[in-house]
């Protein structure tokens, strides 16, 4: 028997919230029962565009919905998520899950509900292609740069941008972190706008991460060095180039080869929201998603703490 649609509510209609709405409105397995944002004009315009109801309050929306997508400022994530969970709603929370590990742990305790955290790069087709075979990295470089804009100035660039790469590293490197070395500066906000971090893992792997929101270009690249191979992952352009070196056992000569991996072009946000909805439809309560998100938040907060102490 075909299952009924998921009654879903959307909280937050800013830059990213509009993309959530666009995809959710197109899903045939979702019924948007209401949208809510403190900006009444934006809410009204989008309700008219998509022909969907407006919730007069957050509480009203939570009473109508069986699941919600939370796309609000980071410092509101925990409060809204906990209200939703107490109302028996499944929750999708945009990254980072919260601004503190303590409140994130409170969210995770609701293991009777499906909780997904929006670390979208896990669904980037370039990353998926790279992870199609077992990896044993020795050294990694991550560069995540964005052109100057006014979004997310309420949090540091570590929580805004770098946390994406921290989350991916958790999936690439199968080892705990032994040491963190970090530096950062403020340029256009009161928070850290540019950060450079070295993560040293217990298995000897080292990762250098740079995140900046004061660049003249956008870049999202990861370079991975393994034994006899080097891979360039361009997350922005969805391309993966792998270079390898093979030694001739008779002559000791090295042969170099390169090839571009096949990447299935998909919309990462659509795939991510579909994953959340499928978990609800299939009663999949796997908590690996939220556990990894909390670990990424913990590492990001440690980095912020190290940088802030240096600045003092």
Please specify the SSE layout and strand pairing.
Layout: E1 6-11, H1 15-26, E2 30-36, H2 40-50, H3 58-64, E3 67-70, H4 74-86, E4 90-94, H5 101-108, E5 115-118, H6 125-130, E6 139-147, H7 157-172, E7 177-185, E8 194-201, E9 206-215, E10 219-226, E11 229-234, E12 239-247, E13 254-260, H8 268-281, H9 288-311
Parallel strand pairs: 1-2, 1-3, 3-4, 4-5, 6-9
Antiparallel strand pairs: 6-10, 7-8, 8-9, 10-11, 11-12, 12-13
Helix pairs in contact: 4-5, 5-9, 7-9
Distance between the termini: 62 Å
Continuous helix count: 9
Q: What is the name of the CATH architecture of the largest domain?
A: 2-Layer Sandwich
Strand content: 25-35%
- Overall geometry comes to globular
Helical proportion, percent range: 25-40%
Largest sheet data: 8 strands, mixed
Please tell me about this protein's structure.
- The chain is an alpha/beta fold.
- The protein folds into 2 domains: 131 residues, Rossmann fold (3-Layer(aba) Sandwich); 158 residues, Dihydrodipicolinate Reductase, domain 2 (2-Layer Sandwich), CATH 3.30.360.10.
- Helices cover 36% and strands 29% of the residues.
- The strands form 2 sheets. An 8-stranded mixed beta sheet has the order 7-8-9-6-10-11-12-13. Strands 2-1-3-4-5 form a 5-stranded parallel beta sheet, with helices on both faces.
- A hairpin with a 4-residue loop joins strand 11 and strand 12.
């Amino acid at each position: 028997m075909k299952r009924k649609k998921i009654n879903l509510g959307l909280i937050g209609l800013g830059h990213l919230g509009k993309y959530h709405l666009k995809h959710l409105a197109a899903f045939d397995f979702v019924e948007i029962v209401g949208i809510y944002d403190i900006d009444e004009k934006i809410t009204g315009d989008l309700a008219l565009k998509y022909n969907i109801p407006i919730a007069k309050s957050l509480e009203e929306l939570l009473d109508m919905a069986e699941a919600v997508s939370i796309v609000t400022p980071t410092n509101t994530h925990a409060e809204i998520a906990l209200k939703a969970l107490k109302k028996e709603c499944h929750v999708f929370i945009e990254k980072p899950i919260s601004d503190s590990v303590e409140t994130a742990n409170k969210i995770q305790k609701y293991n009777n509900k499906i909780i997904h955290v929006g670390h979208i790069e896990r669904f980037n087709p370039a990353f998926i292609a790279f992870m199609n075979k077992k990896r044993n990295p020795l050294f990694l470089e991550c560069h995540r740069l964005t052109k100057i804009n006014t979004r997310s100035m309420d949090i540091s660039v570590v929580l805004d941008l770098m946390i994406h790469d921290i989350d991916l590293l958790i999936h690439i490197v199968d080892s705990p972190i032994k040491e963190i070395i970090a530096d950062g500066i403020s340029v256009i906000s009161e928070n850290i706008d540019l950060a450079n971090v070295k993560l040293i893992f217990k298995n000897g792997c080292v990762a250098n991460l740079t995140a900046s929101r004061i660049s003249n270009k956008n870049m999202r690249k990861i370079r991975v060095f393994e034994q006899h191979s080097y891979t360039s992952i361009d997350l922005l352009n969805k391309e993966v180039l792998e270079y390898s070196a093979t030694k001739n056992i008779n002559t000791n000569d090295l042969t170099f080869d390169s090839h571009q991996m096949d990447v299935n072009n998909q919309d990462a946000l659509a795939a991510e929201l579909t994953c959340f909805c499928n978990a609800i439809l299939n009663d999949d309560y796997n908590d690996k998603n939220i556990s990894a998100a909390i670990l990424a938040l913990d590492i990001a907060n440690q980095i912020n703490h190290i940088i802030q102490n240096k600045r003092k």
